[in-house]
Structures are given as C-alpha cells and as structure tokens.
Write the structure tokens for this entry.
Amino acid sequence: MAIIVNEEKGIFALETQNSLYQMQIGKFGHLFHMYYGEKMVPQDLSYLLFDGQANFTPYPYESNNRSDSLDFLPQEYPTSGTGDLRSVALDIENEDGTHVVDLRFKTFELMSGKYRLESLPSFFAKADEKVETLKIILFDKISNIEVELYYGVFEDRDVITRASRITNLGTASITIRKAQSLTLDFHTGQFDLIHFHGKWTMERQFERLPIRHSTHSFGSNHGVSSNRQNPGFIIADKNTTETSGACYGFNLVYSGNFTATAEQSSLELSRITLGLGDSTFSWRLVTGEAFGTPEAILSYSSQGFERISQNFHDVIRQNLSRSKFTNTSRPVLINNWEATYFDFTGEKLLDIAQSATEIGVDLLVMDDGWFANRFDDNRSLGDWYVNEEKLGMPLKDFVHKINDLGLKFGLWIEPEMVSEESELYRAHPEWALNFPHRKPLMGRNQLVLDMSKPEVIEYLFDCLTSIFDQANIEYVKWDMNRPITDWFSKDLVNGRQGELQHRYILGLYDLLERLTSRYPNVCFERCASGGARFDLGMLYYQPQIWTSDNTDAINRLKIQYGMSFFYPISSMGAHVAVSPSHSNGRITTLKTRALTAAVGTFGYELDLTKMTNDEKAEALDYTKAYKAYQKLIFSGDYYRLENPFDTECSSWQIVSKDKSESLLTFVATNVTGYPPAFYLKAKGLDKSALYLVEGQEYYGSVLMNIGIKLPKLTGVYPSVQYYIKKSKRAGKKQL
Ligand code: DGJ
C-alpha cells in the first residue's frame, strides 16, 4: 500500500520507493503537513508541532493555547483569514467582501489508480502500475465551501502529484482570488532555491540562491509559462550537489501564467507554493459551481539533483506525454527557417529537400511564410490558406514532390495569433484581445486571438483541419510568438475578467486535445519563439518542443543544461545550424554543432544546398550516428557530468536502463596551451562489468572512478563523443 491511513490518529502517510509524505489532522480539524523527505517508517510525528511561546500571533478562538497559531504550524492547504499570515494557497472573497475560508477536515477517500482532471492535462497511470489516489475533503461550515485535495502517489517513480478542487456549496456567490496547486511547509531547514531564469535565445539559465528571511517570488505574467522563468524549480539543502544531499523538485502541469514562492518565515519555518499566476487572477463561483486547479508534481531525492532529474524524465516519458511518438523514433528533420527565413519558393525548398536526402534527413518542415501574403512578419497571421503562387503549386502537389524524394513533410503554424493586416482581423476584429477604447500593445506586429471564445476555437479547428487534410502532413510545428497582453474579453461580464488568462489556456488545451486526437499519427512540435512555452502542460499534448531560437552550439550548452533538470532529452528540439551562427556570429565546427544537437530531437536548420560535398559526407555520418543512438538517447538515464556554468567545458552522458551501453559527450568551451591530462569520469555504469570504449576494455568502476582519458583537445570549441558498450567478455577478470 502506497497510502497508509490511521483514522484514529488522523494520519495520512504517502509512501513512494524512497520518500514519505505525511499529514495529520490537528485537534481543531486543521490539516497539518507533517513531513516530506527521506523514507521512514510512518509514525505519529505530532511532537514536531510548535508548542513554544506565541504571545502576539493570532490563534483560533476555540483554543486556550496561544501556540496553536496557524502562523507557526505547518499546513497542507493554508487559507486566508485564519491567522496564517504567510503566503496562502487559497484566498476567497465572500459575497460580503470578506477574505476568509476556514477549512477543517471532513472526510477522505482512497482510490486505486490515478485521479484525472477535467479539461486540464495531468499525469496518468499505466495499466499494472502501482499508483494510488488519496482524496481529502476539507470544509468551511460557515460559507459552505468545500475543498478536495487530490494526491496521486506514483510509488515506483518516486513522485507525488497534487491538485485541488474548490466547490461553492453555499447560497451566495464567491470569488476565488488565489488558488494554488501546491504548498509545502517545512518545520525546519535552511534551503537554497534553484530556478531557471532567462530570456529569448537564452532560456533556462541555472541560478542558485539562498532562501533567507523573505519571500522569493517568481513566475510568469506573459500568458505563457515564459522564457523568463519556468514552473520547474528545486529547493535543496545548503550542501546538496549534483550527486549528493537532499533536494525537492516541483513543477506544474500548466502552460500559462504561474506564481511560485519560496519563503523563510519566523521560527525558521519554510514554505513553498506553486500554482496559477495570481496577479490578476480571479474566478467567480456561483452556487454549485466548482473550480479545479492545475496539477503540481513533486519529487524528493536524497542523492542530489541528478536523481530528481531522472525521476522527472521518467515520469514525463512514461506518464504524461501521450503522443505515440514520445517513446518511439522521431524523424531527423530539416527546417528551412534559418536557411531562408521568409525568402523562399517551392523550388528553393525542393532544392534543400534534395540536399537533405544526401545527409540522411527524414522530413522537411516548411516554416513561417507559406500562407497568404506572409512575406515578412508584419502580416497575414490568421489567413491559413496556402500561397500557391509562392509555392508554385498546390500544397498537395508540393508534398507529393517532397514525398517522392523520400522525405516526410511538416508544416509550421501559429494559430493563436492574428495580424492587423489580415482578412481574419478585418472580418473579426472583436476576436483579438484588446482593452476597450485603447489601441492594443503590439508584439512582433501581431495580436493575440481570444482563445477563451468557443467560436475562435471552432474557427481554428475548422481551418487547421482543412489544411491538415489537404496533403500528407506528418509533422506540425505549432508556434506562438509574443507575450499575451491586453487581457480583456468582451464575453466575460459580471466581474469575470480575472478568469480570462486561465480560460485562454483552457481554450488552447481544448483545441490541442481535439487536434492531437484527430491526428494521432502527426508528430506535433511546440514552439514559442523557442522555449517560452516549454512546460509540462504542453508535453502532455506534444512529445517535443523547440528549445531555443539560439542555435549556437556553445550557448546551447547552458540552455540545454538548464532544461535537463526537469525535461527529458527526448523533448528538446536541437538543430545543427550554420557557422558563423545567426544567433551570435560564433564559429564552431560541424562536429561540435552535431554532437550538441544530438542530445535532443535532432535536425538541421541551414541552407543545405550551400554545403560542400565533404560537409555533406560528414553530416551524413552524424545523422547515421544519431539514428543509431536515438533509442538510447530517448530512453536512457541522463547524467550531467560537467556544469557549463562553473567550468570551461560541458559534458553529459546517457546510460541505458540495463547499463549495457552509454553515450558520453564532452565539449570544451576553452582550450589552453600545455594542458594537463583530463580524465572524464563516467556515471551510472555497472561497476563490475567490462566495457569497451574505442576498442579498449575497462571495468565500469575504472571508468567511473578514474575516467576516460581525453585526447589533447585543440582548436575551436573541440568536442569528443564516446560510445561505451558492455564487452562480450562481461564479468571476466582481467588480472
Ligand atoms: C519563432 C520560432 O522560434 C522560429 O523557429 C521560427 O519558426 C519563427 N518563429 C517563424 O516566425
């Protein structure tokens, strides 16, 4: 049993392979969070509850003990108006304007399998998997507000999911001002916060800072999870490293605005919260209505960040991403964006496709610029019909020609947008988000469609299906290229404007659900000017996401390093682009570009017709190698060996689950004269097995304790890759 309940003592213990999560009902019915961390035998932990002096803090009326203040007690789902003056999970404005919801335990339910959420993406259990659900119901007897707390316990994956659902059972309407998916209180501990900040072309930059006596708050107001922050973050003990020490990873299955807080309050209590962005959020619930929060996921590791990452990679690959492509091979593609930008014709693309066949590519993606008058980024978004003049033929014939070359075909779209200069905008200006009586804020000279409107979703569904049905389209790159502003929807009346940001995402999910279920054989790629919507909500519908518009291999080392903390390698789009790089003018070798792109969903993004025959021959070798290793790359355990933020190199390794093979890559970001020998220590191998590396046998323990001796690396950002395979003589003694 992964969930143990002691009804008499009111204790709920959730067990995973290596962790324990424990809650307990307090003497007045509050639900306290007692523990989350290293697995222990569950026992009554009420001795941990604060019992010191608390002269000047608010405490419940029914208590005659001032130390019963909720401000000093660890709570499972803290709420406003109850004397807990820290960040709360739930803030409700009642009809009379008061902000109070006082939740006490009502009942609980145990279910086998995993709960599902209505209209929102969430993790699922596979048949035969050990997954259990606990539902705890809390209730405010004055306002008749009920809150269901859901816990999904994925025992073998060492993760727990959480979500909540708030129902108004009272007679008056209420307004939810804040509803978080997760709060986690700690009785004790000094933590560091690791979060991933960034910007366009430099997403997911690793940053570690101490959580001090203040509230660290970060999130997104961009309408997307954003390139500035990501909902995936970690808190760790001070001494935690990549491979040792305690840490906790958190993430949210959501693609819109989010807020996360990490707080150390008085008495050294720490609190984490994560959920919907709350700066302008509100949701009105009339009698009988319910609101469900997105799902949060958490994992504990006593063995550093590496284990947190591996837990997330596994659960995302196995229990989140529903696409049939998630765990199967994916096409090596050529994308024409950096090759041509808008300046292409059908003929030019066919030339590129012809060259692509010479380097082993499987699929051509026709990027932005194929529709209506889209000759630059100032016009035509929303007019989703093919510019046959530019293409030189109907889409169907063009795709035939691509298929005749032996390639599959993929198409770029950006459905959530509309250009002012478009037929769609002229017909439906009211479909664009815009504050009344004001000119809209522009972003890339485009506006955002109001995805909360069912008629917009219907329109997009109809025109996208009519394009997808026109030709043999086997891949779709779904882009989104501006932060969302001007949050006003004409349909949302009676104080409901605060619902718009979340309703936008619900509309988007609805469209994605319909399209991905109608086209299960299409591989969908997500993009938002690169990695501005790289999140678990998107990975539920789509197996891969374009990681960054930065295709410089050396900048990519840091971006992909940061990305790897939460997201599996199989979800990261990575392409070989031209040198000097369009992103920053840097010169790199084809080898370093290829090895860096090979840790993701590999492709090319340059004008292949300009490659020399020698370059094509070299590229063909990289494509072949990638295809040979793709299964290992997608399904193995990922290890970060060298941190590009701290060292002048970056290195990573992927080891198959059965430890029989591994791929290890090293890129130097600096070279010096007269360098000492460098031994690169491998990880994750079988200590006592013999492995072959470039014809030489080593024990796993030798490779992990001493390492592979790197050759002298010279030149421009040199790189090296080793394929490590268990020797047939496995287990035989060498001495
Ligand atoms: C931004 C994307 O990240 C690029 O890859 C490309 O698709 C452009 N948009 C097209 O406008």
